[in-house]
Fold this sequence. Notes:
By secondary structure, the chain is α+β, with helices and mostly antiparallel strands. The protein has a single domain, classed as Alpha-Beta Plaits, CATH 3.30.70.260. The protein has two helices and four strands; from the N terminus they run βαββαβ.
Amino acid sequence: MTTDGSGSSGPKPLPDPEESPLKFPTDFPIKVMGKRQDRFAQTVVDIVLKHAPDYDPSTLEMRASREANYLSVTCTIRATSRDQLDNLYRELSGHPMVKMVL
Length: 102
């Protein structure tokens, strides 16, 4: 018998991968990193606006790497679904200017 009193000694079932721990809508920061180059930040904003049309570009946060070769851009969107986030991450990750999305 287990300590939870359920009488079950088997492993707990895995969570449903389709179920998100996030509760929507929620403010969700997305950090995008790439080589520092012309139009990088604008390209990121353009992609974000396709998936989150209510995103306010004036809230964009940018930070250059120590040697200024790379730029990280953080956009905090009002996420409405897991599908929205998945599609946004997929498009950002697939763009040639983008090195990493967190």
